[in-house]
Amino acid sequence: MVNLTPKLNPKGWDEMFSNDGVRDSYSQVLHTLQNLNKESLQDKQKQASDFFMNQGITFTVYSDDNQGIERIFPFDIIPRIITQQDWLEVENGIKQRLEALNLFLEDIYNEQNIINDGIIPAALIASCPHYIQEVQGIKVPHNIHVHIAGIDLIRGAKGEFYVLEDNLRCPSGVSYMLENREITKRIFPDMLTSNKVSMVGNYPMIFHSILVSLSPRNVANPNVVLLTPGIYNSAYYEHTFLARQMGIPLVEGRDLVVNNNKVYMKTTSGLHQVDVIYRRLDDEYLDPLVFKPDSTLGIPGLISAYRQGNVAIVNAVGNGVADDKAVYAYVPDMIKYYLNQEPILKNVPTYQMENLEEREIAFSDMENMVIKETNQSGGYGMIMGNKATQEELDNAKIAIAANPRNFIAQPIIQLSTVPCLIDGELKLRHVDLRPYALCGPKGVQIVPGGLTRVALTEGSLVVNSSQGGGSKDTWIIK
């Protein structure tokens, strides 16, 4: 039997253990684990690794010389459990947040009342590289700009949830959430049933229904496609997985053509009009006639067809202005402005480097700050003050002073921990959570679970797979 004694996260919240012992939500799981010997647990971990290898579940890590290295996605077999009560707070908070962010995007690309009323500085929006002037005034179906969102959450020292960032462009990772559940079904089939774990497997069906509902044509079977940059993209596995799960064609830009402001897919039986494009391609590559003229990934004339309302693009073009890390600081103000409500989920306190007073506060306490570039993702362009050398901190100050709009600073928050099976033993590791929200004409639906990302390196707070992180199955227990 595996000997488990309660361990605590001395600087924060542990999801399995409290000062009083094992949390009720974990009692059945811990009982099951205690009845397994070390060899059985290691065998289950090997089963999981073999499954991911055989399924080709990979991601790409890019080195300093921009060389891509293909890796199997690390998976830890010990689930991360969230109670129904805690999940209700997450669900309501994300729904509120997305309602405000959708209203913001509709406003910022049309009347811009939030700027005119002095809530958000005009210069902040104008300087955002992902504010796309070319889509100003385009009416999107049902005024919905965000159809799928991955909202990154962390838990603070008392277990309270914070929003770390909003991913509103092409959020990734949902395939790992679904595959994590599949492997759990194989290695712990009885635990899922006995713990009354909410299902996540209906995600593709819900999302496909939303995509169909966005069709500009009133036809029985709208033509929906998934647009991928191709096999060299780091998330290509996910593109193929989702296309297969939803039963829609996986296409590249060369498979589509625009004729008379309508998009068509090339097939062996001729051209078929495309109604909805779920794109996994960044804005700047979508249409070489509007954005990057040397892009071979997009479709010439796509934005013209989009402007005419002849094709829906998911997520909408230009969403990056709403998940810019400098704009993130204003989301609580958006909620108050558009909804006249107090935010249910808090932001992490954020210092704007363009504000001299806030910059001085950050500079005076750099060792306890995380410095982020406002338009980077995947853990790139980030400096953890408590791990950085003095030279790195000094260089960061120089870079910030040269281009303050490009940076924010946030106090380092000790992420919650969950035990992980490492080298045959349970060890505490830090985690975050990315729930996936789907927005359609009937409202927001949030899959009861999400992708729990794990910082597998001891003491690390960086959970991104690109930085050596892994994942866990996430259970919402009824």
UniProtKB/TrEMBL annotation:
Pfam families registered for this protein in UniProt: CP_ATPgrasp_2
Domain of life: Bacteria
Cross-referenced InterPro entries: ATP-dep_Glu-Cys_Ligase-2, CP_ATPgrasp_2, UCP005522
Residue intervals of the Circularly permuted ATP-grasp type domain: 79-455
PANTHER family per the UniProt record, alphabetical: BLR5612 PROTEIN, SLL1039 PROTEIN
Protein name (database record): Circularly permuted type 2 ATP-grasp protein
